[in-house]
Specification:
Elements (H helix, E strand, L loop, with lengths): L1 H10 L23 E16 L26 E16 L5 E14 L22 E12 L2 E9 L21 E11 L2 E11 L3 E3 L6 E3 L6 E10 L3 H9 L4 E16 L19 E18 L2 E14 L14 E14 L6 E10 L51 H6 L5 E14 L3 E14 L11 E14 L3 E12 L15 E11 L1
Antiparallel strand pairs: 1-2, 1-20, 2-3, 3-4, 4-5, 5-6, 6-7, 7-10, 8-9, 10-11, 11-12, 12-13, 13-14, 14-15, 15-16, 16-17, 17-18, 18-19, 19-20
Length: 521
């Protein structure tokens, strides 16, 4: 039991509740007086990355697969380090029916040595960081009503395994989803039912007369969303009790979300020169709508677990042009499918465990993987790594499903080179073993092997489906008092999908070494 709790410290940072529907209102209970709870974690990590461009030359568009060292043409190794202080605050009123919560990240993904004062070689300090160095990720309120819980504000968004909607709570997560929403959650007949309204974008803003507040002056450009979900769910403590009693637990859930936007103001979020803007209006027709259906299953045995998530996304953009006054005669459509499977033989408190994970993300036949959603990227050429999957007027479909970037399955291919799992199928056998269990903590070794293939060979730089094979070993120590350290390695053996046909170069292996320190409070 203590090992399971300690392991969670290494794998998950502190959670500002409301990461998913199962967290909202769970800690609202009778309290004799007002209380303030503070928890969080400090993370520091360093990386050594060797040959992540696979030494296969440039793409037809003149880009490397990964940044390469400048100043030394023969250099193959890059280094990087960063840190993050995450603080979750929860403030409860007397009686316990109302709570206000925030998540604050300080120095989030700020590079070590990235703020030298003055001449770097003579700098004796780091400049005080501003701007993105302080990020308010979440701020919302909860109130317990006689028939459920009402929550409002900017809160985390997570569902199932985090394949599609991911709150970014893991120790190595870098982003995470949050929504400005009003949500109502109620327990009924052994299930959790939830409904929410989201305002994803309020459109272009103008100052009001007081010079403080602002107002959206193009209501038709607002992006709205509605979400409905139901779940049958047990928390980790319940799973531990049921495991110890020899019982099997079946959890499941489904969510459907719909988002829409009638018109758009693309110059508000695109980096386009002021001189290119129209003189009359920045608003253009859009006609965007998207619907997502996501289902999740989890079966927990006394000594094992099977978990599955599958999602389908259907979208349509009636007017895909980004330039006001310039119209397109054909819509852009999208049909995307994704699924992920996790299996584990062995309970968290067991000395060892093993399993096989798998995943599928639908692809698109256009060149490049389509991992980036930057609309200003030029249309990819055959042999490029990435680029928009729609190329008007010739190609009007975007069918590649993208896993959330914080859903980690490897350390080099999908995380660093491609950017996320998309247009791919993978198999991931894994195993772990506790080398030493002490009163103060546990030393554990684990390893995973990932074999992957492209759904559409035309998407890959080499025009072949075999993406490659990766081995990811880990040595970790987790103490019971809140400290954790992990040493993570990776070796990626690229397949023929990354060979450079124009230059007749064969992709070569890449390596990665990462050390991560976690201080939980």
């Amino acid at each position: 039991m203590r090992f399971a709790v300690a392991l969670a410290i290494l794998t998950c940072a502190a959670n500002a509740r409301a990461t998913g529907w199962t967290d909202v209102g769970q800690d609202l209970k009778a309290r004799p007086k007002s209380e303030v709870h503070v928890e969080g974690a400090f993370r520091m990590r360093g990386e050594l990355l060797h040959n992540l461009d696979l030494d296969r030359g440039l793409s037809p568009s003149g880009e490397a697969l990964f940044p390469i060292a400048e100043g030394n043409p023969t250099a193959q190794t890059l280094t990087y380090g960063d840190m993050r202080l995450r603080t979750d605050l929860a403030m409860y009123t007397a009686g316990g029916a109302v709570a206000v919560k925030t998540r604050i990240d300080v120095l989030d993904n700020i590079a070590l040595g990235g703020s030298a004062a003055g001449v770097p070689s003579a700098s004796t300090t780091q400049r005080a960081s501003g701007g993105d160095a302080l990020r308010i990720k979440r701020a919302y309120g909860e109130v317990l009503l006689p028939f459920g819980v009402l929550a409002a504000g900017r809160m985390g968004a997570h569902f199932g395994m985090g394949m599609l909607a991911n709150g970014g709570d893991c120790a190595d997560c870098d982003s995470g989803d949050a929504q400005d929403r009003v949500a109502f959650i109620t327990p009924l007949v052994g299930h959790i039912f939830a409904a929410a309204y989201d305002l994803a974008w309020s459109g272009p803003l103008a100052n009001r007369k007081d010079g403080v507040r602002r107002i959206g002056y193009a209501p038709s450009t607002q992006v709205h969303g509605a979400t409905f979900a139901f779940l049958r769910w047990n928390d980790e403590l319940a799973h531990t009790r049921r495991r110890n009693a020899g019982k099997t637990t079946f959890n499941y859930g489904a969510t459907v979300a719909h988002r829409w936007q009638n018109s758009d103001a693309p110059y508000e979020y695109l980096s386009i020169a002021e001189g290119a803007r129209p003189t009359s209006t920045t608003v253009t027709a859009r006609g965007f709508s998207a619907t997502v259906l996501d289902a999740w299953l989890r079966l927990v045995f006394p000594h094992g677990r099977i978990e599955l998530e599958g999602a389908m996304l259907l979208a349509r953009v009636e007017q895909p042009s980004l330039i006001p006054g310039v119209t397109s005669n054909h819509p852009v459509t999208s049909k995307q499918f994704g699924a992920a499977l996790q299996t584990e033989i062995g309970a968290p408190q067991d000395f060892g465990g093993a399993g096989v994970d798998a995943g599928y993300a639908s692809g698109d036949s256009a060149p490049g993987f389509g991992a980036s959603n930057d609309p200003l990227r030029p249309a990819p050429r055959r042999g490029d790594l990435d680029g928009p999957q729609a190329n008007l007027p010739y190609d009007r479909t975007v069918d590649n499903f993208r896993f959330h970037p914080d859903y980690r399955i490897d350390r080099i291919l999908f995380r660093e080179i491609v950017g996320t799992v998309t247009d791919a199928v993978y198999l991931r056998p894994h195993a772990r073993y506790a080398l030493w269990k002490m009163r103060t903590g546990t030393l554990q070794v684990s390893a995973a092997a990932i074999a992957s293939w492209a759904v559409h060979a035309s998407s890959t730089p080499g025009g072949k489906s075999q993406l490659g094979f990766e081995i990811d070993p880990t040595l970790s120590y987790v103490s019971h008092d809140g400290f954790g350290v992990a040493v993570e390695g990776a070796m990626f053996f690229p397949g023929s999908a990354f060979n450079n046909l124009e230059s007749r170069l064969t992709a070569k292996p890449a390596q990665l070494l990462r050390v991560r320190l976690m201080f939980h409070f």
